[in-house]
Each structure stands twice: as structure tokens, then as C-alpha cells.
Amino acid sequence: SQLLGSLRQENGVSPGGGACKMRWQLSEQLRCLELQGELRRELLQELAEFMRRRAEVELEYSRGLEKLAERFSSRGGRLGSSREHQSFRKEPSLLSPLHCWAVLLQHTRQQSRESAALSEVLAGPLAQRLSHIAEDVGRLVKKSRDLEQQLQDELLEVVSELQTAKKTYQAYHMESVNAEAKLREAERQEEKRAGRSVPTTTAAATEAGPLRKSSLKKGGRLVEKRQAKFMEHKLKCTKARNEYLLSLASVNAAVSNYYLHDVLDLMDCCDTGFHLALGQVLRSYTAAESRTQASQVQGLGSLEEAVEALDPPGDKAKVLEVHATIFCPPLRFDYHPHDGDEVAEIRVEMELQDEIVPRAQNIQSRLDRQTIETEEVNKTLKATLQALLEVVASDDGDVLDSFQTSPSTESLKSTSSDPGSRQAGRRRGQQQETETFYLTKLQEYLSGRSILAKLQAKHEKLQEALQRGDKEEREMSWTQYTQRKFQKSRHPRPSSQYNQRLFGGDMEKFIQSSGQPVPLVVESCIRFINLNGEDPLVEGCTAHDLDSVAGVLKLYFHPQVYHTA
Amino acid sequence: SQLLGSLRQENGVSPGGGACKMRWQLSEQLRCLELQGELRRELLQELAEFMRRRAEVELEYSRGLEKLAERFSSRGGRLGSSREHQSFRKEPSLLSPLHCWAVLLQHTRQQSRESAALSEVLAGPLAQRLSHIAEDVGRLVKKSRDLEQQLQDELLEVVSELQTAKKTYQAYHMESVNAEAKLREAERQEEKRAGRSVPTTTAAATEAGPLRKSSLKKGGRLVEKRQAKFMEHKLKCTKARNEYLLSLASVNAAVSNYYLHDVLDLMDCCDTGFHLALGQVLRSYTAAESRTQASQVQGLGSLEEAVEALDPPGDKAKVLEVHATIFCPPLRFDYHPHDGDEVAEIRVEMELQDEIVPRAQNIQSRLDRQTIETEEVNKTLKATLQALLEVVASDDGDVLDSFQTSPSTESLKSTSSDPGSRQAGRRRGQQQETETFYLTKLQEYLSGRSILAKLQAKHEKLQEALQRGDKEEREMSWTQYTQRKFQKSRHPRPSSQYNQRLFGGDMEKFIQSSGQPVPLVVESCIRFINLNGEDPLVEGCTAHDLDSVAGVLKLYFHPQVYHTA
């Protein structure tokens, strides 16, 4: 790093002196402490700003989603432009797809609310908390720095005392050395003087005696005096050296204590709570986002449930229920005998037998042929439907595949050129082809079935008449005519209102008035249950569908459940 | 519903006639089929539009997040305005908080990418698929309607044939009745004529014989002729009645077949694949959103890991490592004997004993007192730190609480007025108070420890000297002086470069050149491990921290691991 590099440079040109190097280290330590603190404050401020701007993005997103949900909710709208459609809006259970749509909009609104809440937390408490931590770090670093400065001052004070002690020791030692030199000088002169007096002892012992004696005495006193002086200085020197040595030990201990403990402790002091607080802010952030996402996952769950509840037979039953007047079969066409005609059945006179018997046989054989053909067509029809549904279902695999493989960087590209889209186009072609074939077969089947129904009815009537002809042809009497007429007249005239009473009416009255032994709705429901009840796993039909149909039956017999619910 | 209402009205005014009512029903059935189809197409188009607009919102969100991540990544930036800071950017492992920051930005970028991908799926395949389904529904409804129309035409044809058959029967029956009347008339006249001829048989038998005979013969021929005519008409009538009755059976069968089967089958045909396809689109939607969210949850997991990896001791060790030159303790201050002074230790002369012994005792007692005091302060210090960290940690509970309770509708309110914020303010006050007290105690502790270190050093020196004084005071010889001097001179002059070789240098050379038996970093690391290794569950220190420190030790002994990694 630059810092390290500049340090090395400075180290390169710095004088080797220990105290000087230490001073440099101490000031760099302060700088380093300040730098760490500054970096942290900047990081925290940057994080706070990030949170605020992230909150803005989230709020914008929330508003976009809200506007979207609002737009489509209010123009229940386009779908409900006529009052007729609004009734579907008001009764979403009427059509299960509309329920999905309502749940989707609800999910979107919930997403909007969650994003708004997230935005609020980021811009509010989290950004504020980060600012607080930045303040805390600034304060702590300032205080730690001041404390470090104080400890450094104390350390340098001790070092300075060491210099003083060293100088004192040096001065006293110098004096001690000088005193010793002077003592040695005096001792040397004393020795010299004593040595000169020995060879002159016999020649001038008497004439120089008193002088020499006083000189010797004087020399001895000087040595004594210098000896005392030396001892005094030596003691002073020892004391100064002791102080110097003690100061040395003290300084080394102080330096060691400062470098090994104080510096690290002050770094810890700067750190106090920083990682803890930062970690908690970031955890709050993840918690807030996770909560948002958990809620969204829940919303998606509701949507999936609504999709599971898509209910074709139920929807159809609702349509039949709402539009009962339209779908209820009309009264049977009755036989209206012409004025005075008392015959109300097919008569096979002798003269007609030659004509009717072959005709009955002809109908019989057409019936047999038509039955086989219609059954064949029905088989093809069912297989085609299966194939069609498979194509429809397979089409969606594409959507997911393209999602899985689409690289997000290539967004907004034209979707008509890629291979997936070409494949989808091929599938759509296949779907339409299958659909056309299905409808052709359906047409054939419905026509066939209609012909079959008519042939069947004629066939039954003819067989009835032929059998009756064999047995009773000549037993016919007025009485029987009258009886039959009476039986017929027992049916009262049908009421034109019975349709309105289909749901909620009296069953017996209905049957009496309509002449239908089993009402259409009931017959239709039972047909459905029979058809699908045999194999509940048949395509598209679930136990749920059967429930829906059974529900319609229930409504039919207990309409008040529907009206009060 | 209005539709139902209007139907009832129409029903009220409609003539009771069956065929007329049926015609009305049939046209309403067609309308109903068209209406169902129209509602479905509109729903699908609305859903497609929703997907496109939802995609726009998502894309905007994605761009917002991308811009945000870009802004803060590029101004690595504000934090890295100097080259010094950029080194931190480039080496995020250097400071664990910067790693968190980098992961947060990475997470934001990932969110942006996911939203873009979601947007693409919604606007592209999903919207397109919905349009396709709308097309399919339109086509199917049109075809079903045409087919229904055809079946209705056939049905009405049969009904019309019935009317014709009925009219034919009525006409023939009329003729038959007329023929019978004429026969009866002829028979009556024949009878009358026969009755008149009986009373006149005796009176005018001869004169009116031939005339009466021819009249009787003529009357019998007329009866015969009329009888034949009647039988002919009666047979025609029977045939016509038979046709009428057969047509009646056929019509009733056809009507029943149409109402009970065809109508429902055609509704099914309109529905073909609709619920299936719609369900698959909505499932694709939830799958796409779920995928987005799963990726975000994963991103949050990474962020949580980064937060878990916040590592105060590791960060400190990195700082020490990078700034080794600044934090390495300086060389010991050595004893510099004054020119010629051969004493290098504290000397306790007889004359100094009276001074030094009490002084040593004084230091001893000050040491004892200081030790106790410093330990006391240290205990308070640790308790205060604990309290401080608890306050810091408790502050964040607030953030989450406010998130939990904040009603999203009251967003953007001033945060300075609510009780939560007031409580947070109180906590901040408490935190700063605790912090101030903590720093006061830290200052006391550090000062005390410094004094302790210095006293300890002096105490040891004095004790050493006193013991030595007792034992060797008078055994000191020149030889010992020289030996001691030799031992000292065995330490070579320290190299000024050893700091640069702290990491990656030769251990033995370092120890020799620095005079430090154990390098600072090693000592510091071991101190940490000893301190925290005893109780790994002590506040803030985890096994992970110990690992970090151990890692620094490893780096110290094997620096190439760091440089090559």
C-alpha cells in the first residue's frame, strides 16, 4: 500500500536513533488510528446513504405495484363495463378464473405494502442507526486518540527523564573521574616527594629537616583531601548511575507496556461495539428483506391455491344455474288429435303392414349402422380431445424453459426469432390443426347422435305399434279408446311459470306441471356424476369437480342454502 | 342479474307457445355462449396487459437496483478517493465489514438481475401465451357457436317438419271425416229409400218395380262408392297420423337430445383447454416469482454469512500486519556507560543502604497498592464494557420492533415523535454515558498499568541489587567486570532493517538482530489466544476469532501462504 511504501521511504531516510524512530512511530500510530476511524465512518455513511437510496428504489417499486393493482381493480372496469359483468365481479366464486385474477391483484397489493414497509425500515431506523454508529465511532476514535496521545506524552516524558538521568550520571561520572585523576596526581606527587627525601636523608637530614617534614605533611593532607573528594564524587556518581539504571529499566518497561498492551487496547477501544452494531444493522436488513419475501411466498401460495381451485364443471354448473330459464328443456310436443279423432297411436292396418314392416326393418338397420358409426366417431373424438389437451399443456413447458435458459442480459430481444419461439409456433400450428380436427369430429358426433336419437324414437314407436298390432289389432273397443283418453286428460295443462320455479320450487308440483318426471338440471347433474364418477382420474375431472356438481344438486333441492349463504 | 331479470320480463310477455319459447331460448343460448367467450377473452387480455405492465414495474425496479449497485461500486469511489483506501477495496478480506459491504452490493446486483429476468418472462412468454389463449378461446367459441347454430337449425327443421306432418294429418283427417259423413249420408238415404219401398211393395210393386229397383241399385252403388272413398281417406289419414306421431316422437327425442346433451357438450367445447392453459400460465407466473425469491433468499444467506464472518480480532491482526513498521516495539534502551565506567549495574554501597532499603520498601508497598487498585479498576472496566456492549446490542432490538409494529400505511411519518424513537433516544443517552464512564475507567486502568509496569521494573532491579549486594558486595573483581562486559558485547548491533523482515524474514536472524527473544506479533497473538482461549464463550470472542489470530500467527511463520494466496 501507499502508506506502507511511504513509511518505508521515511524509514530509509530517518536517522537510526531509537528515540527519534519511536517519536515517528508514535505519531504514525495516531495517524493510523485516525485513519481506521475515518474509514469506518465513511463506510457507515456510505451504507446509510445506500439504505436511503435503496429505500427510494423500493418505494418507487411499491408505488408502481400499487398503481398497477389500483388500475386493474378499478376497471373491474373493462370487464364490468355492463352491469351484467359487474355481477361476475361481485360474485367471484361464480367463475374460478376471476377468483385467480382477484387473488393475483390481492397478491400485487400485498407486495406493494411489503415493499413500502421495507422502504420505511431502510430509510428510517436502519439509516438512522448507521448514522448513530458513525457518530459513535467518531466519538470513540477521538477519545481513544486523545488517550493514546496522553499515554504517548507520558512515555516521552519518561524517555526525557531517562536522558536527564543519563546526563546527570555522565556529569557525575566525569566529576568522579576528574576527582580520581586529581587524587592519583596528588598520590603520585606525594610518592615522588617521599622518594626524593630518602636519598638526601644522610646529607641534609638536619639542615632540611623541618622543611621536608612540613612538605611531606602537606602532601599527605592533599591526598587525604582528594581522597575524600573522590569518594564523595564516586558516591554521587554511583547514585546517579543507579538512578540512570532504574530509569532505564522503567523506560524499557513503559515502552514495552505501551507497545505490547496499550496500543492494542486502544485499538480495541476504537472498535468497541462497531462490529456488533454493524452486524446487527445488516442482520436487521436481511431480516426485513426476508420478512418481505416470506410474505410474498405466502401470497404466491394463495395464488397457487386459487389456481388449484380452477373448476371447469363448477363454473359450468354456475352458468347453468344463473341462466336456468335459457337452458331448461321446453315442454314436450304433445299429440294434438284433430277435431274428433280418437286415435292417438300408430295404427298398423292390414293394408299398411306391407309398407311399415320393411320400413321398421330399414330403420332398425340404419339404427345399428348409425350406432356403430357414432361410437367410432366418439372414440376418435375422445382421443383427439386428449391429444389437444396434451398440446395445450405442452405449450407451457416452453414458457418455463425459456425462463430457465434466457440469459437476463439479452432482455427485450425480439421473441419471434429465437428457436424456442419457432418451436412454440410449430406447437401452435399443431394445436390449431388438432383443434380443427376435433371440431370436425365433434360435428360428426353431434349430428350422428342427433340422427340416432331420432331413429331410436321412431324405431321404438314402430316396434310398439307392430307388437300392439299383433296382439290387440282386433280387440280395440270404444272403452279402451275412452280409457286412453281419460289417462291422457289426467295430465293437467302445464304452467308457463314452471321454469321460474326450477330452483326453489316444489318438486312434486314441478313434476306434475311440467310433465318431466326428472328435471333437466337433476338429470344433467346425475349424467355428469355417472360419466365422471366411474373413473375419477379421467382427464380434467377431479373429485373436486364432482363436489361442485353435487353442490349444484344440493342447491337445486335446497335453494335457501344458496340464497342465505 | 340484469340478464336473468330481463329474461323473466321477456318470459312474462312472451306468448306461451312452446316452439316460440324454444326459438327464444335457442337464440339466448347462442348469446350466452358468445358472452362467456367474450368474458374469457377480456379476462385473458386484461391478464396479458397486467403481465406487461407488471413487467414494466419490475424492469424499472431492476434498473433502479442496478443503478444503485453501480453507483456505490464505482465510487469505491468515495471510500477509495486516495490510493491508500483503494487497497482496502481491492483486498476486501482485509476488513471484514468491507466484505459485508461488497456482498451487499453483490446481492443488490443479483436482485436487479433476477427482477430483469422476471420482467422478461412476464412481458415475453407469459403475455404472449395469454394472447394465444385469448385467440384460442375466440376461435373455439366461434366454432362452437357455429356448430350450435347448425344444430339449432336442424332442430328447427325437424320442428317445422312436425308442423307440416301435423297439417297433412289434419287435412287428411278432415277429408276422411268428410268422406265418412258423405258415406253416412248415402247410407241414410239408402236406408230411407229402402224403408219407403216396403210399405208400397204390395200397391205399386208392378208399376214402380223397375224404377224402384234401379233407384235401390243406384243407392247401393253410391254407398259402396262412398264406402271405398272413405276407406281410402281413412287409410291416408292413418298414414298421415302415423307420420305425425313418428315425427312427434322424433322431435321430442331431438329436442331432449339437444337440451340434455348438445348444449352441455358445446359449452365443454368452448371450455376446451381454457382452464388448463390459464392455470399453467398462472403457475408459470408463480414459478417465475418463486425462483426470483429463492435467489434472493440465497443472496440474503450470503449476506448473513458475511455478517457472521465479521471479525474484530482478524481485522486488528490485518492492520498490525500491514502496518508492522509502525507497531513493532522499538529496540530496548541500552545502558550506555560513560567513558571508562565499568560498572553496569546498580551498586548498593554501604553509604547508600540507609537510603535504598527504605526506598525499595516504599516501592514495594506502592507496587502492592497499585496492583490492587489496577485490578479493581480492571474489573470495573470489564463490567462497564459488558454493559456498554449490551446497550449497543439492545439498540437494534428497536429497529426490528419498529419494523414489526409499524403500520405500513403510516409511512414517511416523522420518526422523531413516536415513542419508539424517544425510547431509542433514551438508550443512546445511556450508551454515551456508559461510554464516557468506560473511557474514564480505561484511562485510569492504562495509567495504573503503566505506573505498575515502571514500579515493577524498578522493584526488580532494586531487589536484584540488594540481593547481589548481600552476597557479592565484596567479591566483585576485575575479572567479573570483564566477563560481564564480554557478555554484553556478544549482542551484535541491531540492524535497522529488521522491521521490514518481520513477516517472511528469518526467525533466528530476527531474534539475534533485534534483541527481542519473542517478536511482538507472536507475543501479541499468543496473548490474545491465552486471554480468550480460556473461556471461548466470553463476550464477543468466538472460536472463529481464535482461528483468525492463529491465522495471523501462521502467516507470520509462513508468509508465502499469504503472498501467493
TrEMBL record, chains A, B:
Gene3D superfamilies: Arfaptin homology (AH) domain/BAR domain, Rho GTPase activation protein. Residues 405-417 have a biased composition (Low complexity). Residues 185-194 have a biased composition (Basic and acidic residues). Residues 185-218, 400-434 are annotated as: Disordered. InterPro entries: AH/BAR_dom_sf (IPR027267), F_BAR_dom (IPR031160), FCH_dom (IPR001060), Rho_GTPase_activation_prot (IPR008936), SLIT-ROBO_RhoGAP (IPR051627). CDD domains: F-BAR_srGAP. It comes from the Eukaryota. The keyword Cell membrane does not apply. This is Rho GTPase activating protein 4. Residues 15-315 form the F-BAR domain. Keywords: Coiled coil. It comes from Rhinopithecus roxellana (Golden snub-nosed monkey). Pfam families: FCH.
